[in-house]
Design goal:
alpha+beta; 4-stranded mixed beta sheet; globular
């Protein structure tokens, strides 16, 4: 059975990490048996990041590489029904979610002072009072460095949230009245979308992006649809 290593659940979500929630959702979508191993020790993870898996000795990190591996090893492809043009659109939508909107979410949690206090308490609250401020500060410093290196962190807050709102509108408009992003059938991009959108909609992190998301009735219905189906 696959061992899934990921951060501990947070904020009444299966995981407070969009990428961890994405991978667990994908595993549920394809009905591959797995066992959760919750840990905050990224030092043992490939590339030093969560999530990662151990499949009978095959250890892999990076959610996208893990999904590619699962497709090959278990011969189950959620995207089999899509043609080349649709697969290209799926890839573009996944990039928008994971390479743009994802960084907006990180900024709102780790940079904004009011939200950082909530993030610190949720992610590091179980640590001893002596260790907690040190570990939290080091983690925040690394995230902010990553934001700066990726480029999102170089913008002003209002510019970052403008980017996030435009991303949400694009997802919302692309979804339209379809049950899932690519149509009637679930696909791998729905795991990516749910992992991030659930972490925008159903956490106490407040921002113009979360405010916008909560006004989008079809995005809300979409996330409820996935949660009800795969996390009953």
């Amino acid at each position: 059975m696959i061992k899934l290593y990921q951060f501990h659940p947070a904020w009444d979500l299966p995981n407070g990490s969009p990428l961890c929630l994405k991978l667990e959702t994908y595993l549920r979508m394809v009905e591959i048996p797995y066992e959760n191993f919750w840990t905050n020790n990224v030092n043992e993870a490939p590339q030093g990041q969560m999530p990662y898996i151990d499949d009978n000795g095959t250890i892999l990190g990076d959610s996208n590489f893990i999904i590619d591996y699962l497709k090959s090893a278990y011969d189950y492809d959620l995207d089999y029904h899509l043609n080349a043009s649709e697969l290209a659109m799926l890839m573009a939508m996944k990039r928008l979610i994971e390479d743009s909107l994802y960084w907006v979410v990180l900024y709102s949690r780790w940079r904004e002072p009011r939200n950082w206090q909530k993030t610190k308490e949720e992610f590091f609250g179980s640590l001893s009072p002596v260790v907690k401020p040190i570990v939290a500060s080091l983690a925040r410093k690394q995230i902010l460095k990553n934001l700066q290196g990726q480029g999102m962190g170089r913008h002003e807050a209002f510019e970052i949230y403008q980017i996030g709102i435009k991303d949400l509108i694009a997802i919302n408009d692309f979804l339209a009245d379809k049950p899932y992003l690519m149509g009637e059938q679930i696909s791998s991009v729905d795991a990516s979308a749910y992992g991030l959108l659930a972490n925008i909609l159903w956490t106490p992190i407040e921002s113009p992006v979360s405010d916008q998301a909560r006004t989008m009735k079809n995005l809300l219905a979409y996330c409820h649809r996935i949660r009800d189906r795969f996390y009953p």
